[in-house]
Amino acid sequence: MNTASQTIQSSSTLSLLSIVALTFFGYVAIGLPLAVLPTYVDSGLGFGVVWAGITISAQYVATIISRAQVGRLCDRYGPRRSVFLGFFAYGFSGALTLASALVAGTPALSLALLLLGRLALGVGESLVSTAAITWAIGLMGSRETVRIISWNGIATYGGIALAAPFGAWLEGQYGFFATGAVTIGLAIAGLMLAQTRPAVPGVKEKGIGTGQVFSRIAPFGVALALASSGFGVVMAFVALFFHSRDWDGASLALSAFGLAFIGVRLGLAQAVARFGGLPLARVSLVLEILGLMALAFAPSPTIAIIGAALAGAGFAPIFPALGNEAMAHVPPQNRGVALGLYSVFLDLALGSTGPIAGLLANRFGYTAPFLLGAGAVLLSLALIMSLRKNGGL
After folding, report:
1. What is the CATH number of domain 208-392?
2. Once rounded to an integer, what is the mean pLDDT over residues 217-236?
3. pTM
4. Which of 124, 151, 176, 247 could disulfide-link to 242, CB 3.0 to 4.6 Å?
């Protein structure tokens, strides 16, 4: 019995890894241009910092707008079709990026192609990231939701973390067009892998309306958005905070955050099964608050690094734990829409935290962003306490 159980568990893990790899390929493609794109638009094409920011943001706008539509597509036709469309979008983005580099002598045309490529990349992200999770749930069952979301999160942040320095090296060795060429290669690899995975059919039975889905997952989404503010300020302001104090070690703080995040995610499924999603989220948010406060008032780099690790460990369970609770409140026919709408809250939080915290930093110094994050996480904790009290409704 033990051997049989281990065999089943091993098969389940390999099946999950094969789907998680789709997410990883997608986020490597997303991470490749992050370190080089702003400089390319700013000084390479000569359009300045504002257009560099617009070019980066175009991807996230496309992702947010397409989330709900992608969810409906997954629910109706099954996730494999969405994954195929997503990697075609990645390939199209790579082709447009490649074309943009080849016509760099005509800056306006180059920028236009680049913007179209960023929009395609955003749609590809929405398609693959949503569909990969629903595909894995369809193959492995809803009981594995926490583990599936957790491992997809590791693939997401791991893909970006590995791709950003690789993209910088690639651009330095071969020029910006190499980013487009590698993106096309990743799209082909994703399509080939997706072709080998067993399909999950769409659900023909009619589910509830999108408005009803939104109302059911909104409390969990709002709690996620508030908790994600802490993640956003750490990513955006740790380096500036260390620089303002004339400290070394900002990269160590970011590494500590990431390693703590990944470490917690790896064992999260067992913790949720034992303690429940909402109780675990409550404890995790307390830990995140402590980490952010330690960062804000750190007297030394060592304390700041410890604070970053605490914040990473505290934030790690939030998306999977609350997502598991949110999915339990919608019928299977609406799983894709629910996941897409739930993810929008994270997208919006990460998109808005930086500018708001930046305004506070300009006026009150670099302690302010971490205090803002701690305050937002405290509000998330209050909301989750209310959800727990009222049975998650």
Report:
1. 1.20.1250.20
2. 90
3. 0.78
4. 247
